[in-house]
């Protein structure tokens, strides 16, 4: 984790990690937990041992402040009471005792923290001149940083020279938005009096986030904050007008709801939308930089090349920058092999680091040996895409499947033909745009496609679902989907048919144990479909054709 930088004129190095607010029921009552005391606890621990309180320690501290027992905290947070009472709690009180220089327990820690806060009154401390005050929150260490020279220059131009009040940095997960935002902030330290970096990963309540930001900007002087969120936003803007501040909010997708077609804020975090809107529309001398997997609507409707609000979509690293990551992890191989790996994973830094670890552990760091296996979607990569795929709407999932089946870039009209009359052009266009905003679909000269690794992941996921339906005899995806005709067209009637069906049959053999069991399962499904064909949709004939084709392929198995 990155070493925290602080404002010299502050009474103490108060650096509260706002990334750990999402604490279920305990957090919903956090208004009784004084932010300043919590800042003191985290700060004195950091000053004593060089590390901040852990997430679980903060949960116990917050719960204890509310007066909850270990049992109640455990029930609310999903932990073992024994673990909290015998391990986390005692360690926490010991750490605080050492940091505060007095005996601290669950019973007296509030008094001890309040006493330390009193001693930390700014009037008792020497006020030092300052060039920049910085609060880095949970910003990671970016001492290893490759490329992004042009992106850094563009962002610096927008923020410093063009004085844009609102900038968004968007791109696929793992593409490097977080590290780029930190690197940028480091380079802009001389341009802003205040720099604040905060993570929205756990969707911290906005009132608490505003409280700690204002507390920092006011040098701990602003104590009686407005009760309303709007009042706190107005107060923040007052400080934004008073002094140049760079506020970075990382991971804005955490306050976006992907369960609907449009990008909008979850009910409890709609006020974040107002914060972004007001910062973008109001005159001041500061800047809000957002990072997100998807572009917030408050940015999308206001941005433009010559407008004050702008966004930069981050793409993968180029071949040279990608090779720095691979070679830095000890991966060796020909230049062509290294380039191929970078191409497969779209230059995504996180995916390149993931695959590098696999190549190290399984293939003795040999790029060539890894590529020979032709397996590019392993567990870490699968989990990475699962988290994004599971949040898609049904039509968005079908679009992903269609693009995976097509294999080659396709036009909007081709996709419209694949879906047929059941999907309106507007609905399809909205789904495509939603996938593009999340960097899951690429567009080039009017044609849409998937990155190689994402195409393989999506294909594997489709095959798994087909196998599950055959194994359970619950044919729902194929009945209701536009995919079936596409599968029949692109695989059954082409030279790729054997590849596709062998993949399905190999998986079925693995799950059902023998060729005989697979044959029996296919016969049962076929009999059921033929018997009920008059009741089913017009896809039934295609399903029967698909099953017949699988039986033909199965006959070649020994």
UniProtKB/TrEMBL annotation:
The domain of life is Bacteria
Positions of the AAA+ ATPase domain: 163-321
* Molecular-function GO terms, alphabetical: ADP binding
Mind telling me what this protein is named?
A: AAA ATPase
């Amino acid at each position: 984790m990155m070493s925290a930088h602080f404002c010299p004129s502050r009474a103490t190095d108060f650096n509260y990690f706002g990334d750990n607010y999402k604490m279920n029921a305990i957090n919903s009552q956090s208004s009784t937990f004084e932010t300043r005391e919590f800042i003191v606890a985290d700060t004195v621990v950091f000053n004593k041992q060089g590390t901040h309180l852990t997430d679980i320690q903060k949960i116990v501290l917050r719960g204890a402040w509310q007066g909850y027992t270990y049992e109640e905290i455990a029930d609310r947070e999903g932990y073992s009471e024994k673990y909290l009472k015998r391990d986390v709690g005692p360690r926490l009180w010991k750490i605080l005792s050492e940091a505060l220089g007095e005996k601290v327990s669950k019973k007296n820690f509030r008094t001890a923290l309040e006493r330390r806060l009193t001693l930390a009154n700014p009037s008792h401390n020497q006020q030092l001149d300052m060039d920049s005050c910085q609060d880095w929150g949970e910003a990671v260490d970016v001492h290893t940083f490759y490329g992004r020279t042009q992106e850094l220059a563009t962002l610096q131009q927008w923020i410093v020279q063009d004085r844009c009040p609102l900038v968004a940095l968007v791109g696929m997960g793992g593409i490097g938005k977080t590290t780029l935002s930190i690197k940028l902030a480091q380079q802009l330290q001389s341009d802003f009096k205040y720099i604040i970096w905060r993570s929205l990963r756990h969707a911290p309540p906005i009132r608490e986030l505003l409280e700690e930001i204002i507390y920092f900007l006011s040098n701990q002087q602003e104590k009686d904050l407005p009760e309303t969120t709007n009042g706190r936003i107005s107060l923040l803007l007052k400080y934004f007008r008073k002094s140049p501040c760079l506020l970075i909010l990382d991971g804005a997708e955490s306050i976006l709801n992907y369960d609907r077609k449009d990008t909008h804020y979850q009910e409890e975090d709609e006020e974040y939308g107002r914060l972004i809107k007001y910062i973008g529309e109001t005159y001041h001398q500061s800047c809000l930089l957002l990072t997100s997997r998807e572009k917030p609507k408050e940015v999308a409707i206001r941005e433009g090349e010559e407008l004050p609000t702008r966004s930069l979509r981050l793409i993968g690293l180029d071949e040279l920058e990608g090779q720095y990551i691979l070679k830095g992890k000890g991966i060796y191989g020909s230049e062509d092999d290294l380039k191929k790996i970078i191409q497969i994973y779209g230059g995504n830094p996180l995916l390149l680091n993931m695959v590098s670890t696999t190549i190290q552990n399984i293939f003795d760091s040999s790029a060539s040996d890894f590529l020979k296996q032709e397996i590019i979607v392993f567990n870490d990569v699968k989990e990475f895409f699962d988290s994004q795929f599971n949040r898609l709407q049904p039509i968005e999932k079908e679009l992903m499947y269609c693009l995976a089946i097509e294999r080659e870039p396709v036009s909007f009209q081709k996709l419209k033909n694949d879906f047929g009359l059941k999907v309106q052009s507007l609905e399809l266009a909205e789904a495509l745009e939603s996938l593009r905003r999340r960097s899951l679909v690429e567009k080039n000269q009017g044609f849409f496609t998937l990155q190689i690794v994402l195409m393989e992941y999506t294909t594997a996921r489709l095959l798994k679902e087909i196998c599950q339906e055959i194994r359970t005899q619950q044919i729902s995806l194929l009945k209701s989907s536009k995919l079936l005709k596409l599968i029949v067209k692109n695989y059954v009637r082409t030279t790729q048919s054997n590849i596709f069906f062998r993949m399905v049959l190999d998986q079925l053999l693995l799950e059902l144990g023998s060729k005989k069991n697979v044959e029996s399962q296919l016969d049962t499904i076929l009999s059921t479909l033929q018997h009920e064909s008059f009741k089913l949709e017009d896809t039934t004939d295609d399903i029967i054709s698909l099953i017949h084709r699988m039986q033909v392929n199965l006959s070649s198995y020994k």
